[in-house]
Structures are given as structure tokens and as C-alpha cells.
Amino acid sequence: MDIQKETSKIKSMIEEDKKSVKTIQELNELKVKYMGKKGIISELNSKIKDVPNEEKKTFGMKVNEVRTLFNDFYDAKKEEIENKVLNEKLEKERIDITMPSKKIKRGSKHPMTRIEEKFEDLFLSMGYTIYDGPEIESDENCFQKLNLPKGHAARDAQDTFYLKDEFENYLLRSQTSTAQVRAMEENKDKGPLRIVCPGKVYRRDEDATHSHQFMQIEGLVIDENVSMADLKGTLELFCKAILGEKTKVRFRPSYFPFTEPSVEVDVTCFKCGGKGCALCKQTGWIEVLGAGMVHPNVLEMSGYDSKKYQGFAFGTGIDRFAMFKYGITDIRTIYGNDIRFLTQFDRKDDE
Fold first, then answer.
1. Where are the domains of the chain?
2. Per-residue confidence at 346, pLDDT binned at 50, 70, 90?
């Protein structure tokens, strides 16, 4: 066999076939024609067994030469075709930046965020400081230093989540009043104090108007000559700023272990304006928070001289105000992460 003649013939065939290849499919068909199991170059290479030993080296070199020629052509042509296809696709899908864009969905603040920020802005304008406390608290801070010793019946109303084993004296706080204890103890000079403490609290309770996790905001003022009149004026301003100037505020005697005297605070029903409806059970009033003068025992346990200083405290559920303000009937929807619920509030308030 004249190997020189055979390889020259194959080279000519390859050069001729190059001219007709335009797609990847045609290129792959050409590869099968030359390099497939029964391809032209593969068939030629299989004949090496019939070549005399002294000619095998030259035969192999010539076959490798024509194989390399085809592989180089294949790789170059494949890259050329792929680049062409990519460029055509890019040209076809090119974005015209001069055209109007698609409408981008605008996010909105969660109703809880709106209310909390409104609370904080109001109290900051009144000279309060925002104070933050941990959500895991000791039994001592959560109850005992708030005048609720172990076994006190009032603890039952705040049945909460305790940690196990060596942490059995720690729990998820049931009220933000625990932050009051910390703030009073951290105030080393035991001077005047004016703080609000927003945050999550936890209780074993869940229905349409209660959640095992909810948000509270607690206020505390300690100073000389602080009276119930200061508390009433503060809460009236607070309720009207959040719920509207036409809101009326009512104070009712109540009982909290950590305040004395204590009051429950009602506001005129946001739905009927105080006329009476199903929401307010025909009374015209809705309870929104509890408050009172800080009990002397609480002051003393945190290092304050109760003969020199007095104080008032108040606490309310941020969730409850959000429900009143935005007409939310089920507290569980607040924490449901349903985007359809959240998008209702993007135009409720002026940003």
C-alpha cells in the first residue's frame, strides 16, 4: 500500500468537505465519516497490521498526520460555529435600554414595623431613650424583681416558656418589663430615667386575638415628684398621636403587682367612634394598655430610694395597635408571611 498516496487522498477529501460544513450537526456527521469506528481514518489505521515491520513507523506517522489535520479542523470549525450561533443569539436578544422598563414591584413596610417606628419616633420626640433587652431572661428579672415572687398567683396569667435542665431558672420573657429592671440596675447613679423598651415577648396563648409570640412596648419614667397626672397626660398624648386626635381615653382602676396604683387604659372604638358595635361589644370602648405608678418594692429592689424617687410605667401590645389602626381581625395573619397580606399596607400611611 502506498501510504503517501492514501493520506494525500484523504487530505484532499477533508479540504473538500470543509467547504460544505455550516452547522454542528454537519460537523459531527463529518467526524463520524472520518473518525468513527468505521470511518476513513480509522479504517486506514486498522491496516497497520498488514504493513511490513520496517514500514510500520512511517505508516503510523502518516496516519497520525492526517488524524491531526482533521482534529485541528474539527476543533477550529466547532469553535467558529458556536461563536457564530452565540453572537446571533446575543444580537437577537439584545436589550434596547432606551425602551421603558417593566414595572418593578415595590416593597412595603410591614404593619408592625410601621407602628413600632411611629411609637419610637413619638417617644424620642418626648425625650425618651430606646432601650433593648434580651429575650431570654432569668426568673428573677422577669418576675421576682417586678414584685412577683415564686408562687404568686399573678404569674399564672403569664404562663410562659421555661428552659430545661441547668437553665430551668431562665425563660423566654413574658413581658418587656424585664428591660425596666435591667435599665434601672444599669443606671449606676440611680438618677432620673426615661426609657421605652420595644421587643418580642412570649406566652402560651394562641387564637385570633392572641399569639404565643407578640410585640410589646414598655415605658418607664423615674424622677422626683412624678405623679399619676404625668402618666395620664403622657398616655393621652400617646393614644391620640397613634389613633387620631378624636380618640378619647378612659382610665379604670386595675391591679398589677409591679405598680400601685394601677390602671387599665381604654380608647374609643376605632370602628364605631364610641357609638357601640360588635367589635367593642356595644360598649364604645376598647382596652389598649395597662399602666400605673411604679411599686416602691420594684424601685427598692433595683437600688432606688423610693422615698426620694417615684415613677410610672406603661405597657401595650404593638400588635394590638396595628390591628386597631389597620383593621386587622386576626393577629395570626400578621406573622403569616403572606405577601398578599403585606401588599395591602403600601399606601396606608404617608412615607
1. 3-92, 111-345
2. low
> Would you mind telling me the total number of residues written for the chain in this entry?
351
pLDDT on residue 102: 74
**Average pLDDT value for residue range 158-181:** 83
CA pair distance 146, 257, nearest whole angstrom: 7
Contacts of 115 (CB under 8 A, 6+ apart): 242, 318, 321, 322, 325
| Homologous superfamily, domain 111-345 | Bira Bifunctional Protein; Domain 2 (3.30.930.10)
The 3-state secondary structure of the chain, one letter per residue? CCHHHHHHHHHHHHHHHHCCCCCHHHHHHHHHHHHCCCCHHHHHHHHHHHCCHHHHHHHHHHHHHHHHHHHHHHHHHHHHHHHHHHHHHHHHCCCCCCCCCCCCCCCCCCHHHHHHHHHHHHHHHCCCEECCCCCEEEHHHHCHHHCCCCCCHHHHHHCCCECCHHHCCEEECCCCHHHHHHHHHHCCCCCCEEEEEEEEEECCCCCCCCCCEEEEEEEEEEECCCCHHHHHHHHHHHHHHHHCCCCCEEEEEEEECCEEEEEEEEEECCCCCCCCCCCCCCCCEEEEEEEEEECHHHHHHCCCCCCCCEEEEEEEEHHHHHHHHHCCCCHHHHHCCCHHHHHHHCCCCCC
pLDDT band at 320 (very low <50, low <70, confident <90, very high): confident
Q: What pLDDT score was predicted for residue 351?
A: 44
Which amino acid is it at 69? L
In tens, the pLDDT along 234-248 reads 999 999 988 888 889
Which triple of cell numbers denotes residue 159?
404562663
- At 101-150, the pLDDT tens digits run 777 776 678 888 888 999 999 999 999 999 998 999 998 999 899 998 88
Q: Provide mean pLDDT across the span 54-77.
A: 86
